[in-house]
Amino acid sequence: MERVISGIRPTGNLHLGNYFGAVKNFVRMQDEYDCMFFIADWHSLTTHPTPENIRQSARTILAEYLACGIDPEKAPIYIQSDVKEVLELYLYLNMNAYLGELERVTSFKEKVRQQPDNVNAGLLTYPTLMAADILMHKADKVPVGKDQEQNMEMARLFARRFNRIYNIEYFKEPQNFYYTKQAVKIPGLDGSGKMGKSNGNCIYLFEDDQTITKKVMRAVTDAGPQAMNSEKPEVIQNLFTLMEAVSTPDTVAYFNDKWNTCEIRYGDMKKQLAADICATVAPIREKIEMYKNDDALLQRIANQGAERARERAAQTIKEVREIIGFRAN
Ligand code: TRP
């Protein structure tokens, strides 16, 4: 079975955009691939979080991913900092990663612009740490968004370079994995495009029915269709796109007809949309609660995940040490 690995950046709570855009695919993948997921908490140190931040965000992410349906028996989930072997590979890869190429990475250049006072070496070598995460597992495929494509190119470059330097076909080049042909993009409720934390237009998986309903009812609309069968403006299309994600095709078709015949009542549509979002979110929210109230269970799952990851990591490190000329240990 092909190996899939993906790192999860610990950036707050999951929202509907994350769920339909990524997490739901992870849940499907775990039945078809040999998957592992991990929380990239070392990567998060580039922004200097507090110890409390770190502990909290790992717990939250674990609880939320499990609640979405990641099954740790099928797809172990671990915390990056529990698998110290990755650091050793990171060091080896750094020895063959050059300042010029690291400085040319777009996301690094962006960070330099955004936070000129905190251009640390961890930020510069972010791509080598990510490559270590992936190559450690000899992963075939990595599910990535557009923003990670350059990091993936670097991972392949470092793999090839290692093989060339030591004249051995050791690391395979991990491929970008687009599980669905077209990424599902969930729009925000403010008519401004994508749902995203920094846009402040999210519906979170931990939110209760009342909060969600309020947000949906406040969603931006317009004055209504001006002619039969007209094209939908973006704010209205957004409501339909959300509906396509959470409602039955019949429901979507019903409101589509209403739009086409100029009989649509946005209040009715929003009520239906809110109900269907709540029906999607409620069972997930209940599981989030369950996991968050069971620290022992979360610990156990993280420990098991780390153990499985370490088995592979230890094997890779042993082989890499031998290739480099160190004692294998
Ligand atoms: N860089 C990824 C992100 O920002 C997170 C990540 C770290 C990752 N290591 C990885 C993703 C390894 C895939 C594989 O989302």
What does this protein look like?
The protein is mainly α. The protein has helices at 16-32, 51-68, 85-95, 99-103, 106-114, 121-124, 126-136, 149-165, 209-217, 234-246, 249-260, 266-292, 295-324, and strands at residues 3-8, 34-39, 77-79, 141-143, 175-177. A 3-stranded parallel beta sheet has the order 1-2-3, sandwiched between helices. A two-stranded parallel sheet has the order 4-5. Strand 4 (141-143), helix 8 (149-165) and strand 5 form a beta-alpha-beta unit. Helix 2 packs across helix 12 (266-292), helix 9 (209-217) runs antiparallel to helix 12 (266-292) and helix 10 crosses helix 12. The mean pLDDT is 96. Bound molecules: tryptophan (TRP). Residues 5-7, 9, 40, 43, 130, 133-134, 142, 148, 151 line the site of tryptophan (TRP).
Set out the fold topology.
Blueprint: E1 3-8, H1 16-32, E2 34-39, H2 51-68, E3 77-79, H3 85-95, H4 99-103, H5 106-114, H6 121-124, H7 126-136, E4 141-143, H8 149-165, E5 175-177, H9 209-217, H10 234-246, H11 249-260, H12 266-292, H13 295-324
Parallel strand pairs: 1-2, 2-3, 4-5
The chain binds tryptophan (TRP).
Q: Which molecules are bound in this entry?
A: tryptophan
| Mean of pLDDT | 96
Count the helices. How many?
13
The count of β-strands is 5
SSE topology string: EHEHEHHHHHEHEHHHHH
* Major sheet description: 3 strands, parallel
Which regions are unreliable across 5 or more consecutive residues at pLDDT < 50?
A: none
Beta-strand portion reads 5-15%
Radius of gyration, in angstroms, nearest whole number: 22 Å
Termini Cα gap: 29 Å
Gross geometry: elongated
Strand arrangement in the largest pleated sheet: 1-2-3
Helix fraction bin: 55-70%
Q: What class do helices, strands and sheet pairing give? A: mainly alpha
